[in-house]
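new request in #modeling-help
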Amino acid sequence: MIVVLEPNTSKEELQHIARWIEDKYSVKIHLSRGENLTILGLVGNTSNVDAEQLEANEKIKTVINVAEPFKKANRLFHPDSSEIQVGDRTIGGEKLAIIAGPCSVESEEQIVDVAKSVQKSGAGFLRGGAFKPRTSPYAFQGLKYEGLELLKEAKKITGLPIVTELMSERDLDVFVEDVDVIQIGTRNMQNFELLKELGKIDKPILLKRGMSATVEEFLMSAEYIMAGGNEKVILCERGIRTFETYTRNTLDLSIIPAIKKLSHLPIVIDPSHATGKWWMVESLSKAAIAAGADGLIIEVHNNPEEALCDGQQSLKPTGFDDLMIELKKIAKIVERDI
Amino acid sequence: MIVVLEPNTSKEELQHIARWIEDKYSVKIHLSRGENLTILGLVGNTSNVDAEQLEANEKIKTVINVAEPFKKANRLFHPDSSEIQVGDRTIGGEKLAIIAGPCSVESEEQIVDVAKSVQKSGAGFLRGGAFKPRTSPYAFQGLKYEGLELLKEAKKITGLPIVTELMSERDLDVFVEDVDVIQIGTRNMQNFELLKELGKIDKPILLKRGMSATVEEFLMSAEYIMAGGNEKVILCERGIRTFETYTRNTLDLSIIPAIKKLSHLPIVIDPSHATGKWWMVESLSKAAIAAGADGLIIEVHNNPEEALCDGQQSLKPTGFDDLMIELKKIAKIVERDI
Amino acid sequence: MIVVLEPNTSKEELQHIARWIEDKYSVKIHLSRGENLTILGLVGNTSNVDAEQLEANEKIKTVINVAEPFKKANRLFHPDSSEIQVGDRTIGGEKLAIIAGPCSVESEEQIVDVAKSVQKSGAGFLRGGAFKPRTSPYAFQGLKYEGLELLKEAKKITGLPIVTELMSERDLDVFVEDVDVIQIGTRNMQNFELLKELGKIDKPILLKRGMSATVEEFLMSAEYIMAGGNEKVILCERGIRTFETYTRNTLDLSIIPAIKKLSHLPIVIDPSHATGKWWMVESLSKAAIAAGADGLIIEVHNNPEEALCDGQQSLKPTGFDDLMIELKKIAKIVERDI
Amino acid sequence: MIVVLEPNTSKEELQHIARWIEDKYSVKIHLSRGENLTILGLVGNTSNVDAEQLEANEKIKTVINVAEPFKKANRLFHPDSSEIQVGDRTIGGEKLAIIAGPCSVESEEQIVDVAKSVQKSGAGFLRGGAFKPRTSPYAFQGLKYEGLELLKEAKKITGLPIVTELMSERDLDVFVEDVDVIQIGTRNMQNFELLKELGKIDKPILLKRGMSATVEEFLMSAEYIMAGGNEKVILCERGIRTFETYTRNTLDLSIIPAIKKLSHLPIVIDPSHATGKWWMVESLSKAAIAAGADGLIIEVHNNPEEALCDGQQSLKPTGFDDLMIELKKIAKIVERDI
């Protein structure tokens, strides 16, 4: 950690600050005095040094943390890539995780039909929303507990593990019982109380990147879950908010090499929510696999025009089937399989 | 609501789509056929027409919602500005709401000292975090229930109503009992399950704008609370996330005239979190009042260098006192008082 | 084009505005009157209707342009993809355009060495900066005219066409004489006077997307060049500015399907400038080709540690050679070749 | 300047890198070796150390520049605020610079009428576009040289100095002759060749912040002009590009205290372009003055509904007059006058 002093700091003030930091945090200080700037390098265990507290000092211009603040999610301390076990499947290994299904569970017929068809095309996991985060209180909010039952029905028939979103701590026990992978949506990525609860359970978590979360903040949210004891975290990029309005969000595929360098956790890509347009999903799914993603989460609906949410970003089963054929070819080039 | 068709839509497809929309949503359609584009104007009650569902149709290029999606928060249906009652005070009326106090409650001495001093300077409300949302799981998370007790102690002595952040539905009953204004932080602005619970209680809510929430999304989150029956919502701008890194966030003061036009709800400004720098607070507090804000929420700490969080953005009591003198003058110019 | 009136507009005002618009712009108006909103649909040739002028009217709430404002760049009026001829090569056809070379031309030895090596690996074009846009006036500004001479030398030896950046109208004649593709940098994407000059020449232009340009603005800058008579425009995505600081910019690959739908112009991707990190280039180059890009522009330097600019984002020749082997495999899957 | 090494750097590599940097840049290195990270502090004259070149080294994780890269614009080396002389007026002193006028010069009657009326209301400078940067090549591009003549006519009658935008180096001589303050628009903030030319003349420059320029980049563009010898730079904030679409741009008023700390140059605010809505101008003008701005640039048109550009953001003369009355009161509170 590096502390930069204001240019007008006197020698006495400098010594006072240096001693104060050394005493308070039990670190050693290396001093570099340049022409205009004086820099203090803090050496030792700086993990509990509070940068914001230091910056409150009027003589401190800025504090720069050069070490990554995440530990358990850091590849530095865990060089091998993590593979997360989900029933008899894994996410993060050679086999790509293809998670497909409708935005919302709407009826038994719908979810079972879609589940069968995506399974036939080669998907390994079934997604489907029972609890739906909607911008408007007047929009369809999901079938809730009934939706979970329908997902279980579809799983019974196809064997596909269930990935679905949890929106409240209140439902955690039900989800631990019924669901294979608990999805945390973009709007809850920094719902810290929920993250703490997820740290206490033994269940894979698909953590979606916050709409305006930096890579570091994203990994810190994974760290919250891992710090509690649950290391089964799967990261998911779903587009970030930028000035561009043509797409719903801007898919940030550079996060794939970034995460592979910084962390050992697997990362999957959601091109459906990122773009909000079904006709962009094919192109970006191929890109994601080529870039080294560990999987995809794709919206598929048997009748998008009648979908109760997000129909405009859903593929039809035939479109998904065509896509999977292409994806298998690209997977092979990057030494993965589907 | 306006539906724009793809240029290659045939006459038969057009008629099919128009009839489908009319039947499904019981609206009337006005057709405008230009050289390259065909536009359907939907007239009638379009509040339950789902734009995303329509966009799933391959022949529909885009759907534009020209009516604001918020109702209870909309000034159109409630022309007079709302004044929210908090004990014997109001927020939204002629008198500006000045909410001051430390980022975190740290000790009885600290919170009582700060409360007394900000009261003396003219603040009308006491802020102080008991439950703290921190990016790192290893950072100080607040004194929690003990913090609430200390806030009540400070209120007993000064009479200042308490404004403090709720982070989990779990603690709602305690907050309803102990707190005067429940603050919802930027990271929970779209924690919809929490918003629904807030709609069921009778207690003022200070709703902070999400870090990357549009004005419309912000008002839709207020709408969530109001739709449940609790119309006591106070909006709070605290800076949005942009590319600029010199300040922690970018304070968007244009939201003040925007909210005044779109909604009847009061809006207060938080210059401390927006900038993350104590020496910017004075300038932006004056700007906010001049622009027509209904109040300010300002961090004040008696010893920022030892603050357990956000010391770098806290004013000292003397600095706050100086600021209040300036603010009173500006308030007078814009026909408000403090 | 759609004009939405303020809710409080009287019938007389409505008629006045409608007649004013009809007279001024010779368009027909379709009126849709809803419960709260009145909408005017403008039918006919609306290309010269000025939305901003209409919005100056106090009774007009907003104006929505549903037709794309670009004509010559629009796929609607030019359904086949454009192939731009550059000497004996084309950009936009089945063969991918791989443009490689150093950020800056530094010496004859350097540019000739790099040119030979990228040619051997399969690149079809040589890039290299002679005039360099640098954030600091104190940084190396390029070898300028001498750099152009060295590029010509490298072309003489390898036969690779030259792609290099023009920074000022002043140098246009020299560039027309010496260069095969004139690159316009991100900071000049809306240097409209320069764009107008480019419209008057007969030379391919590689137009980089502005750091914060929307897809529509990007195409409007292409339209500026094309409106002048030069239709040889190659678009280039090089990352946009977002809140994320881990990468220099955020590469927006969703622009590939967007441009393919909206326009007939070819689009190439620059992963080097987008990320600012050489170790991300491989992953994102593969992604770009898989997503359907028409080519890549990649920085390659024989000695990045001594490069006079942007060394941190340059591949070494061996790294580039390895990458090309992978790219050829992916190109084949998407039915392109290199 | 601080160089952080990759965690796996060996002792030999560390010594090699340290010696290489010391030799290449004639700086001294202070070494801080922590548990996981090794940090090199570069002491001495680091102004010509190229961070990007260092980052090309595979063993260097990141390079952090702790000193501001701007010199002539830096308050550190010029503690007193600069006052820029414009004819018999100054910008940056106690008297606020109020620059008002239409977006475009349209006719003699229009510009003379507006000039007279804003002068009467107390404006000190006349703005008006002769050369107009328009997103569309098909939109009105300004009256050009004829527009300059009309501005001179208005100046002759009112005495108000002229502020107008230069779009091309080509017209520099004419502008030096005819214009009092040369405005450089947001899209040309990093048109470096133009900036260099501006450095060679002796004329005040109003430099608008680029739509997505950081504060540091903004000051570096001022530095380009100053490095050439022209120190008469007036900064202008006109809104930055963010995700918010309700306003045209997001006005960043926190730049006022930021510039006041970092630089000695004056800063004026343009609320008209920032918001794109005339009814927001009053609120944000007051805010800007309260925050400590050195002036305002405001669009005023005698007939906004017929304005050839940007009518929707223009005040009418009576609105401007009312605003000036309010601004005078606020100016007094912050110890400035108009």
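bot summary: The domain at 2-64 of chain D is CATH 3.30.70.1140 (Alpha-Beta Plaits).
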